[in-house]
């Protein structure tokens, strides 16, 4: 599960570096979490104030099943 925060800037290199290196124009907003979410890079976009609860639920979900065969 890959989670992003709203309006997060997600990039390996900045816009100017990419444009100078590849000699291509990078569209505005193409490195924003919302744009990348619509391209399928993230599962949810969660505001920071809700992140603790969402992570807690995910950990509980993944911890529901025991890892050792003797409990199965």
Automatic annotation (TrEMBL):
BP GO terms, sorted: fatty acid biosynthetic process; malonyl-CoA biosynthetic process
Instruction: Quote the cellular component terms of the Gene Ontology held in the record.
Output: acetyl-CoA carboxylase complex
What the entry lists under InterPro entries is as follows: Acetyl_CoA_COase_Trfase_b_su (IPR000438), ClpP/crotonase-like_dom_sf (IPR029045), COA_CT_N (IPR011762)
Q: How does it assemble?
A: Acetyl-CoA carboxylase is a heterohexamer composed of biotin carboxyl carrier protein, biotin carboxylase and 2 subunits each of ACCase subunit alpha and ACCase plastid-coded subunit beta (accD).
Superkingdom of origin: Eukaryota
* Residues of the CoA carboxyltransferase N-terminal domain: 1-72
Which species is this record about?
Answer: Allium mongolicum
Q: Which GO MF terms does the UniProt record name?
A: acetyl-CoA carboxylase activity; transferase activity; zinc ion binding
Residues of the signal peptide = none
Descriptive protein name = Acetyl-CoA carboxylase transferase beta subunit
Q: Per its UniProt record, what PROSITE patterns does this chain match?
A: COA_CT_NTER
UniProt keyword terms in alphabetical order: Chloroplast, Metal-binding, Plastid, Transferase, Zinc, Zinc-finger
